[in-house]
Amino acid sequence: MLIGSKHVVKNARPLQIVLDGKPMKQSDYFKYLGIYIDHCLTWNKHVTYIQSRVYPKLKLLNRIPSFLSRDILLRIYKQTVLPLLDYGCVIWGESSKRNAECLERLQNRAMRIILHADRKTCTQKMRAKLFLSSLYSRRLFSKLQYVYKIIYNINCPKQLIGY
Predict the structure, then answer these.
(1) Whether the Cβ atoms of residue 144 and residue 152 lie closer than 8 Å to each other
(2) pLDDT tier, 139 (very low <50, low <70, confident <90, very high otherwise)
């Protein structure tokens, strides 16, 4: 896979890599550790993948609100949907504004299901009722937490070994 800007990738010669006498096919994206990396690092493929994983869970969540309390619905959301929205966000979190808004709409839909709210309900009020942060704030916190761990050498293998 050749990674670069759209202009560079479009105007570049095709890669010709031979392994064991067989030419390798050039790819536009690759899935590594559950994250789709595309040739222009737009993360569009990954966000589409997240949406495809979250929509079925929201459909199920939408079927059961009359049977369960708000607290249990929120717990189900936090344990089944939120990890999908957060996974690898330190890497792909600087995606386009359009991608960020798509994911934020998924969380808004989940909050509406949990609170039995209509489309006109203010998202900030829903977040306040459920004690949830925006996905943007969660991604920012994850990045800051990661930088903090790097600066202060936390979770370093040397510390675990005892050097």
Answers:
(1) no
(2) very high
The DSSP symbol for 125 reads H
Beta bridge partners of 19: 22
Residue 126 reports pLDDT greater than 60: yes
pTM of the model: 0.82
The answer to whether 104 and 136 have CB atoms below 8 angstroms apart is yes
Distance CA 135, CA 114 (A): 17
Q: How far is the C-alpha of 144 from the C-alpha of 35, rounded, in Å?
A: 20
Beta bridge partners of 38: 29
Whole-number Å distance between alpha carbons of 79 and 12: 44
The alpha carbon dihedral of 97, 103, 39, 142 has a sign of positive
For residue 50, which of 69, 74, 31 has the smallest C-alpha distance?
31
Q: Which two tokens stand for residue 86?
A: 């957060």
